Sequence to fold (573 residues):
Amino acid sequence: MTATNDRTYRSGPNPFHTVMLAGTTPLFLGTMLCDYAYSTTYHIQWATFASWLNLGGLIFAGLALLCAIIGFFRSQDRRLAFLMYPALLLLTWVLGLVNALAHARDAWAMMPVGFALSIVVVLLAGTATWVGFSRFGIGDKP
Amino acid sequence: MKFSHFFAAPLSILLVAGVARAQDSQKYGPNPDLPEPQRGLLPDMSVPEPAEWGDQLPTVPDGYTITAIATDLKVPRQTLVLPNGDILVAEGSGGNAPPLKPKDFIAGYIKSQGTTSVESGNRLTLLRDSDDDGSYEEQTVFAENLNAPYGLALVDNNLYVANQDAVVRFDYEEGQTEASGSPEIITLLPSEINHHWTKAMTASADGDYLYLGIGSNSNITERGMAAEVSRAEVWEIDADTGMHRPYATGLRNPTALAIQPDTERLWAVVNERDELGPDLVPDYLTTVQDGSFYGWPFSYWGQHVDPRVRPQNPEKVESAVVPDYSLGSHVAPLGLAFSIPEMGDEFAEGVFIGEHGSWNRSDPVGYQVVFIPFRNGEPDGDPIDFVSGFLTEDGKTRGRPVGVTIDPEGALIIADDLTNAVWRVTYDGDE
Fold:
């Protein structure tokens, strides 16, 4: 028997980065579903929920974006393909911020633009997450 | 980096959207211009920073004198001149509306920059000028432990006080400087949330009824329709029994009520809705007609539908009456008093209106006491500045007028909830 120094498993991506990225889409999805509920019931509580879920999404996406930018600059391989993930997250975050301002309007004034933005943001967040967990994304634990 | 262009563009759009357009248009009177509603992504908010008076005073017309007759009060809102010339001042702040959305935390903080940090007095202070020299040297606490008192009315020996949650009655004897006992509750008032907490009040000419203004529980239904039951109404309350009914509805925030001498009609000033642009929706002065609906929340200025309210209600919109007189958007009228001939020829017939001043506008308006001239019992002409100088030239505010009251001797009493003072404007006569 010989002992080996080779690790037989990958080190895995940074857990904090992973949790932030994985949480982004469900929060934005919740925003969109609450917007849908408000648009069909006129019950204001749904609009309030949507505002807070969107804020949660912005916090998660923002921290994931920060990790993504740090990761990009710390990596040796700076091919443009690796820029796709932070770029998508950035776009998600900016539109999410615009959506937060739209949701800050009183009552039905947030419609229909708030709902439309929620749909776009959840699609972008999903795409960013997909790319993020692909081989162009998060990468190994530093 | 390429991406800076990418997100710089949307951000600049945001900034441009928040800038108001200046325009000259008819703001006052029975037929104000009503532009299209507009709301950028960022609402127009501008709250003048408080400043000190130093040795300066508010500006009054030639032939008039203004003095501060009480200072260091605890948020004075409305005043009442008693038959012997004593002045009662209602002091306090109410409302317990919790922040609802993320924006409420931000907007609440910004608005708080323009208000006093003094704690709510929850009391009535009595001011007395024993030697009749115009300086109110005696100052006593008439009653305390009230709950954000605002509206005041005296009928014979009954002093009615509208707290934010109830109308209460004190026994009053002329010359009293302190209430003789605890008040009696006449009727409870809608007070849950109390987004607009002020309960304006006046007594009918014969003293049988009290009229009481209850503001809406939101800007425009963003706290849900269930929160708006018995809100945005003027009640008629039987002063003896406390029985009440809605006298008029759809008045978003009726902040001051007054009975017109001679005609005995009820008038109100009403604060209209925000976030439809710098020149919408006009705050107004109006007669309050029994059984009428004034639009809120479904429409404004008659039949102008507010698209922010769902479900809509075309029947109610159809029934909405048009108010009498626009005071301009966002001026925030909080005080109303009918003038008397003793105020001098130019200001003999009409109403004085205390304008607390705007926040939902990049270019501040209000922050003054205006006079609306009347002829034959109806408003006739544009507002005239009566007391100004609350806003400084560098965009700060030294005071914010609230309640205005006429002293029958020929003086206007003004409560100022930023200076925490009561001002008195007297007519010097023809010299």
